[in-house]
Amino acid sequence: AQKITQTQPGMFVQEKEAVTLDCTYDTSDQSYGLFWYKQPSSGEMIFLIYQGSYDEQNATEGRYSLNFQKARKSANLVISASQLGDSAMYFCAMRERETGANNLFFGTGTRLTVIP
Amino acid sequence: DAGITQSPRHKVTETGTPVTLRCHQTENHRYMYWYRQDPGHGLRLIHYSYGVKDTDKGEVSDGYSVSRSKTEDFLLTLESATSSQTSVYFCAISESSTGPGYEQYFGPGTRLTVT
User: Fold this and answer.
1) Alpha carbon separation from A48 to A37, A82, B80 (Å, rounded)
2) What would the pLDDT profile of B43-100 be if each residue is shown by its tens digit?
3) Which of B95, B106, B110 best probes binding to A when mutated, by most A CB atoms within 10 angstroms?
């Protein structure tokens, strides 16, 4: 079974609008971490935001926020006030404490295109 | 930006030849990782290291070996390259494996083509 599922291969958003990128995860571990990374066309992987399974508040980093719904096992990324530079691939990832704190499981990604 | 470099950045090699990719970090982070990225699979962990000479296998380790003789360098070797190993390879580092600071930072990637 896939540990991370990103069901949106591609998304479009108007510049200055907000967009939500979906991520669901599958784990039986009680302790885990969720991450979002951005991969622009230049190819590098850029860490955006982290949410721990025991964190009660949703993580925020500037224009990025993580909508964490533990019961639904979802960790959606919200980008507010989209900019042209936000056009990129976005990957959701998870690390589980019990199955290996060093193994980061990635989803297949969502390609976001910001329209001027 | 985390100080991570990878070399070479691009390589074309023939089936059956050995290939070594190098990852170098200037952050003095304990943990280093090698991933491969393929369409439809996201990134998958090949091997990782939790200290000098301490390494372990990841999800897709068959056909790969690694070595870490210094904190700053982590080498990935394909002993006999196959076409299925054509991919983009990323090195990553992290300060810790648990608690604050265990997000992973990635290098620029190496595009390897095996013909």
Assistant:
1) 5, 15, 36
2) 999 999 989 999 999 889 999 999 999 999 999 999 999 999 999 999 999 887 665 4
3) B106
